[in-house]
Amino acid sequence: MNLALPVPSAHYKSPSQRARVATEPWVAANLFCSACSSPRLRSHKSGTPARDFQCPSCMEHYELKSKKSTFGRSIVDGAYATMIERVRANETPNFLGLLYDENAWCVRDLFLIPRFAVSISAIHQRNPTRVTGRKEPWVGCTILLELIPPEARIPVVLEGRACPPIQVRRAYRKFLPLKDVNPVSRGWKLDVLFVIHSLGKKEFSVDDIHSAKYLFERLHPANRHIRAKIRQQLQVLRDLGLLRFLGNGRYRLT
Description:
It is a single chain. By secondary structure, the chain is of the alpha+beta class. It has two domains: 15-165, Dam replacing family, catalytic PD-(D/E)XK domain (PvuII Endonuclease, Chain A); 183-253, Winged helix-like DNA-binding domain superfamily/Winged helix DNA-binding domain (Arc Repressor Mutant, subunit A, Orthogonal Bundle). The chain is built from seven helices and 13 strands.
């Protein structure tokens, strides 16, 4: 993998344009599919909503987000309604977060978020904005990285060094059990996984998860049986192989 980016032509003045013409060709020339053995991704036609690249073999979709500064707690994305529709239809793309060095024009870091790891809870609606020429305000969204399980932020390039494709694909396959789960139910599972990771320990008890009841009440205000739902999701995560039941109300992350 060549981490050098093509240097944008001087006639591109906008920072976003310069980033786009440097990073998108780089992905098409260097990046592999994480879902199969394909060594390449192909570019979508410009303007395709919420999709930038597609694997020519397994047809998985990818969306690229590039920044010259460190990614914070969220990623700014496109139209809120479009993204929610894609999550509910199980058509969310895999997300690529690329951090580049504008002086050296090279890739510093790149992470991948599998599409199965993005729930409705992680899609935050932004305030409407009035755009010239539009009759109605435009409503965008952000993806809250803090509501995505840490292991779902898979390194592809880390501190200027490319990670082996086999390592990236192995990490991606950990989330395949969630692929065929209903997107709404998947949201509950990912929210429970997020709380588990926030505990900062491999082994935990059901009571540890119940202590975050306030968070589940905020994320799922229509549910009136939070504790029962938590117990159910722990059992499902166990059946999916993401948790191991130790007995006496205790679990361990696998």
